[in-house]
Write a structure and sequence with these properties.
Elements lengths: L1 H6 L1 H9 L12 E9 L7 H16 L4 E10 L11 H9 L9 E4 L2 H4 L4 H11 L3 E4 L4 E2 L5 H36 L11 E8 L3 H5 L3 E7 L1 H15 L4 H10 L5 H4 L14 H8 L9 E2 L2 E7 L9 E7 L6 E2 L11 H15 L2 H6 L18 E3 L7 E5 L2 E7 L16 E5 H15 L5 H10 L7 H25 L8 H20 L8 H11 L2 H5 L4 H10 L3 E5 L4 E6 L8 E4 L1
Helix pairs in contact: 10-12, 16-19, 17-18
Length: 583
């Protein structure tokens, strides 16, 4: 026995422990890349998730002579998002084209973490085209496209991943509904205007309580609660949403985004709007009862003509049967149930008269059937707001009114009372420029311009936010210089607070804007092919078709009233590049 142990002690020990050791592989599978994914929606720890997925992958391939040389790991990405739209997965797909990538196979730690629905069948041919093998633990080896069992198993795996996600969503929603109905628990999110979130004691879940989590409850904020009561009172007296908003602006009442800029980074503190008043009047949580599920996530196809592009999440009003209410009062009320119900009855009675009936609350407004070709596409250069379509006598105009700006706004000093831009003056030169740029004869030059400007020009969204940040900082410097020159600081408090809030909002938005992706010439040619004959569409007499072409081309128009000039930009929707022009 001693001789056997001394000759091969590890073999004897493995036999005693019942371990099976894989035989050494003479010809290993070589260098591999590993891919994993972690979602943060269910409180996963990214480091722990990455650790066990990479560990599983190593245990799978190292006995076969594999060596992981690089990692691709997505954090905070839903499995329903296609690989092309995930940060690390998209980078992995891009590396397939690199002949010096240093690896010729990809391994995953768990298939259900990586693929969802039919995603595997859409990307597996791309790996095969570049000679990259896919190693999947659930298959017990390398995926073989010629093996029908492998295809069936991967299809089942994608279905299991989709089913698992749907079951988790259903269980979480059912639990949250029960918490609201039985306990009136606040489910998080921004507190409604008029309330603030306060500490409600230890968390009822023992595990979370041991980790230091606290229950959060809504408490009344007296100053803003008085504004809510004023809104309901004025509405029941017969005033409309916009009239109430105008009165609040004239009285210099801070709007929600100005009062709490940290909770409203996606909005500008530009005063009260009719939509803000409407959202307060329609929020039943002011009655003191917990309401949950009024808005719900809907997944809609990013491109109905390309199902493989995946879905995007949009928030929509939920069906009435999906909304739940607590059985008893959950937090202090701001308005009574009777007052809130009366306001809803008034809203329904006014809505029964259509838009004309609603408009009569402030002024008579004739209905129009005209299609504004550039609706939502024209901005005022002074205030950067979208110009609104309006019919003036026999002409169609886009207008920007100074009276709709919040009182005390810094741009009022340079903004004319009304900025008008006539539609039939700008559409012919804009259409002529678009026809020239996207003509077949000029396609090569257009593609070269689109590709070449990717590195030189920032995307429009980032440049607009950067301009807002620069303007806010300039205003702050001017106000500080005025104080140093002897101006009473009290006279500049509101203006400085507004500029500071705009600066913080712009900085936060810049931090969260995604980096722009770049495209090559082949992809740009494919995008242009999908547009069809631009000139034929623009010269048609169908307003809806012309408007759709503008949308597809990503048309953006900025009107400079002082120079009476347009800055026109057309940019393909999938990238941040554009071709500029002026008329």
């Amino acid at each position: 026995m001693t001789a056997e142990i001394s000759s091969d002690p590890w073999s004897t020990l493995d036999e005693m422990l019942g371990l099976q050791v894989a035989d050494p592989v003479d010809d290993g599978i070589g260098a591999l890349a590993v891919y994993g994914r972690c979602s943060t929606e269910d409180n996963q720890d990214p480091e722990t998730s990455r650790g066990w997925q990479v560990g599983n992958a190593r245990k799978f391939v190292e006995p076969l002579g594999g060596q992981i040389v690089t990692e691709f790991f997505d954090v905070g990405q839903s499995r329903s998002v296609p690989w092309e739209r995930r940060t690390e997965a998209g980078r992995l797909l891009a590396e397939l084209k690199n002949p010096r990538r240093g690896w010729n196979a990809v391994v995953v730690g768990e298939g259900t973490r990586c693929w969802f629905g039919n995603q595997f069948s859409l990307i597996a041919p791309r790996f095969a085209a570049y000679g990259v093998d896919l190693w999947v633990p659930e298959l017990g080896g390398k995926f073989d496209a010629r093996n029908p069992s492998h295809k069936m198993l991967m299809s089942v795996l994608g279905g299991m991943s989709e089913s698992e996600r749907q079951h988790v969503q259903a269980r979480v929603r059912a639990a949250m509904d029960a918490q609201v109905i039985n306990e009136g628990r606040h489910q998080g999110g921004r507190a409604p205007y008029g309330y603030v979130v306060a500490d409600g004691g230890p968390h009822p879940n023992p595990r979370k309580a041991a980790e230091g989590f606290r229950l959060r409850v809504l408490v009344v904020e007296d100053e803003s609660a008085d504004v809510v009561r004023r809104i309901f009172a004025e509405y029941l007296e017969g005033r409309g949403d916009r009239a109430i908003a105008k009165g609040l602006n004239l009285d210099r009442v801070p709007c929600p985004s100005e009062r709490r800029p940290d909770q409203n980074r996606h909005r500008l503190a530009d005063g009260w709007q009719g939509g803000t008043v409407r959202s307060i009047l329609e929020n039943p949580r002011y009655t003191g009862y917990a309401i949950f599920g009024r808005w719900t996530k809907h997944e809609t196809l990013l491109n109905p003509d390309d199902v493989g592009a995946g879905h995007v999440v949009r928030f929509r009003r939920a069906e009435p049967d999906r909304v739940v209410r607590s059985r008893r009062s959950a937090h202090p009320e701001i308005v009574s149930v009777e007052t809130f119900t009366q306001a809803q009855l008034v809203r329904r009675s006014r809505a029964a008269g259509g838009m004309r009936g609603i408009a009569k609350l402030e002024r008579e407004r004739p209905a129009t059937k005209h299609t504004y070709l550039m609706k939502g596409l024209v901005r005022c250069e002074i205030c950067t707001r979208k110009m609104q379509g309006a019919k003036i006598r026999t002409g169609i105009y886009y207008r920007c009114l100074a009276r709709t700006l919040a009182p005390g706004s810094a741009v009022l000093a340079d903004h004319p009372k009304t900025v008008n831009l006539r539609e039939d003056v700008i559409t012919p030169p804009v259409n002529a420029w678009l026809c020239q740029v996207f003509d077949l004869a000029n396609r090569d030059e257009t593609v070269a311009a689109l590709v070449g400007t990717q590195q030189d020009k920032p995307d429009t969204g980032r440049s607009v936010v950067a301009k807002q940040l620069k303007d806010a900082e300039a205003r702050l410097r001017r106000h500080q210089a005025a104080i140093e020159a002897g101006v009473d600081p009290a006279a500049l408090v509101d203006a400085m607070n507004l500029a500071h809030a705009e600066k913080k909002a712009a900085q936060a938005e810049l931090e969260h804007l995604p980096e722009a992706a770049t495209v090559d010439a082949a992809e740009v040619y494919a995008m242009l092919d999908s547009l069809g004959d631009v000139a034929r569409h623009l010269n048609s007499r169908n307003p809806e078709r012309i408007t759709q072409v503008y949308r597809d081309l990503g048309l953006q128009v900025v009107y400079n009233n002082k120079k009476e000039a347009l800055d026109v930009r057309a940019s393909l929707r999938v990238s941040n590049v554009g071709v500029r022009g002026g008329t």
